[in-house]
Amino acid sequence: MSWFKRKTKGITTTTEEKKDTPKGLWYKSPTGKIIDTEELEKNFYVSPEDGYHVRIGSKEYFEILFDDNKFKELDANLESKDPLKFVDTKKYPDRLKSAQEKTKLKDAVRVGVGKSKGKDLVVACMDFAFIGGSMGSVVGEKIARAADYALKKKLPLMVISKSGGARMMEAALSLMQLAKTSVKLAQLAEAKLPYISLCTDPTTGGTTASFAMLGDINISEPGALIGFAGPRVVKDTTGKDLPEGFQSAEFLLEHGFLDFITVRKELKNKVNQYIDLIMNQPLRA
């Protein structure tokens, strides 16, 4: 059966259920804790009782990382095309238009450059709300251009991943972005400029298989789902039972795939401490 006809079997999740930042006066975390949404926002969208990190997008991450939320957005108007004339339950251009209207974004990644604790930083941040943060040609191109900008200006680069993987509507063109972004990050390494990869919930598929795991340091938020394929696919492929929570950030840290896990309120400090150390600059308070 075609993947886009599976909803007849009841295997589907409505767009309304795929929420990121909460709406309304109150937010209920998966562990049942209830918090006022204004208080949640002040606490970096982290539930204070159980530490649950609510999914957020580029808008919120830029507010956290850039001083006074001041930054310049790079390549803001890049948009995806439809060279394959792809159609599933709707035409790809119609799906893009719908996502753009809903999210007010052009595609699944935004790139900003600004001051973070007084020093320039380039940040590429993915938005899961835009077609599941899927990696298409525009995502790969914007990350590649972000690396080029960092190379030209001799600045550190940070990529915040939040993605379901490659964008199937672009097929092989999407998969080509794995190689393109990896080459650009290799150039950044040759220039001895730091690249920080932050994996957030979820980081999966081709994103994990490329830039998300190529950082000079790979870090994550608590409880993030990080992996390539889903548990069922991995089990069917390996023929083995899987350890509980084997795709959680904590499991990956224990087995050496991550350098450290940081809570969101400490993210700005942790990132800048690393940049200061690697670039041999005085530590900033």
UniProtKB/TrEMBL annotation:
This is Acetyl-coenzyme A carboxylase carboxyl transferase subunit beta. SUPFAM superfamilies: ClpP/crotonase. It catalyses: N(6)-carboxybiotinyl-L-lysyl-[protein] + acetyl-CoA = N(6)-biotinyl-L-lysyl-[protein] + malonyl-CoA. NCBIfam families: accD. The gene is accD. It is found in: Cytoplasm. Keywords: ATP-binding, Cytoplasm, Fatty acid biosynthesis, Fatty acid metabolism, Lipid biosynthesis, Lipid metabolism, Nucleotide-binding, Transferase. Belongs to the AccD/PCCB family. GO terms for biological process: fatty acid biosynthetic process; malonyl-CoA biosynthetic process.
